[in-house]
Structure formats: structure tokens, C-alpha cells
Amino acid sequence: MDISPCGHEFAISLLQMRSENDLYKRIQTILTELLPDIPMAMYLAPSLSDKERLKLLALSSSKTPPDLEYLLARAETLKHKHILFGDNHLCIVLRSNKAIMGLLWIGEKLPTARSYLIAHLINVFYHQLNTLALSRIDPLTQLLNRQTFDDKVIEITTGEGFVIEREQQGVRKWYLALFDIDHFKIVNDNFGHVIGDEVLLLVAQQLKDNFRAEDFVFRYGGEEFAVLFQAHDRSEAGSLLNRVRKVISAFNFPQVKKLTISIGYTVLEEIAQVSELVHEADLALYYAKKHGRDQVVDFEELGIAGQAKAETDIELF
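Predicted structure:
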């Protein structure tokens, strides 16, 4: 497809974005420039997963867009079409392996060339979004990776979502928990690294399944995992973590059979640096490992807030 000089520059600008937030802002700016005063609505699958319902990403409309279910049904009917033309609108469909991953509804008819240009740019946007998402993922466990952890902590502690309030649920704060598989070195020594990798994968899956969709689960390094999650208070946070600990201890791992995990956690303070928060959770985790493993420890219960020296001379495996 021929791309106008303007379209080429737009495409290059999308490929130059290095964060998802910047990419979202850039595509919205481009659409506003290409479609001035034209109503539109953009929907995208959260986490780029075909298992999640499309959610509204952007809306610029002087008239109500058609019902999302209607748009999806039409896109499903015309499975091989990426642009659906209507009498007074058009809809651009993003597909991945035939699954519908996104929709852009435009509330006016456009010239054919302009329609195809916008469809091209929407696909450039989506592929760049996938590229950025893949750079955040640990290839073995499919969890968020260590490199993403610092950015997410900073985003939470400095962003508007630092304290979350839901209708009829009250205010919830963010907590950081570090998880370490107990005696994991013995697993690798006795069963080999292939089984060790399978254990990591299964623990990762249990963590993903037992936290909410809005929480963040990371492979922090080796056999250690980190989770950023929400709770009303420390007691609720501890209860949630103990439930997850029990799920892991009850799980039957291939060949290995039974494993336990130790957990240390702390509340995310708005003014704290990432290194300080990790240090607090680490101290709680080390205490759990040193005092019997297979337990959850709250940093506050250690009574050493303000102390900088970590007690690290313990055998973790």
C-alpha cells in the first residue's frame, strides 16, 4: 500500500515510542489530527489478551457509537475484513490469529485512501504495542520481568492510582510482596533444571491465578517472585498472602510433589524509593527463611523500621 509522506511520518513516530503510555498518547494525537471534529471510539483488549473483553481506550464523539456487541458481531460475521464500511460510519478491526483484539469506530464516511491510511497506522500502533509488551515479559514464566518492576513501583507510588477506592469497598493501598521458593536448589540438584523450570512455570501460574487482574506479578529473579497488590490494610494483605502460600503448599508438582514458599511484604509508601521498599520486603523475606520457611512475614512486625542494615547471612536454600 502506498503511504503518503504524512502517513510515513506518523508511522515512524509511532515506532519511536518507547513506553506504552507515550504510544497511547501518540495514536490519539494522530487520530485527532487525521479526523478533526469527527466522532470516533477506540476499543482494545487489556493486556493484549484474546481472553479479555475489549475495553474503551479513547472516545471523541458528538454522537453515541454503536453498541460494542453489535460491532463485534459484525466483525465476526465478516471475518476476513479489516475495514467494515457502513452507510454513515466505518470500523477498523485489529485481529490476531483471527481473534478480535481491537476496534476503531469512526462516525463518518471517509475517502477510501484516508480509510486505508488510518487502518495502516492502527496496525503499526498495535504491532508496536505488542513489541513493547513483549519486552516486559519473562520468556519462561510469561510474568512481567525484573526490568519492568522499578517502573511499575514508581508509576504506582507517584501516580493518581496510589490509593484505590472502589464503590462499597473502601480505600485500598498497594503492597509489595517478595516470594521465594524454599529449597529450590535441591529441586534442581535432585530432578534437573528441566523440572526446575517446570516448577517455576507452575508457581508463576498459581500466582497469576490467585491475584486480581489489576495486580502485577513479576519474576524478580531466579526462583524469586514479586507481586504488587492491593488490600485495605496490613491484616488483609497478610491473609491474602497466607491464602496464596497455602495454595502453593497444597499443589502437587510433577515429580517434586510438594513445595513451600516464604513471603515477606511491606506497604508501598508514597515517599519511599524503590530500593527502600524492596529492602523492607527483603528483610521480611529473610526473616521468614531464617525462622522456619513456609510463612508470611510483615516488615512492620519486625520492629526495625528505620534500620538500614539487613540481616543477610542466612542460608536461603
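Summary: Residues 5-134 form a domain with the Beta-Lactamase fold (CATH 3.30.450.40).
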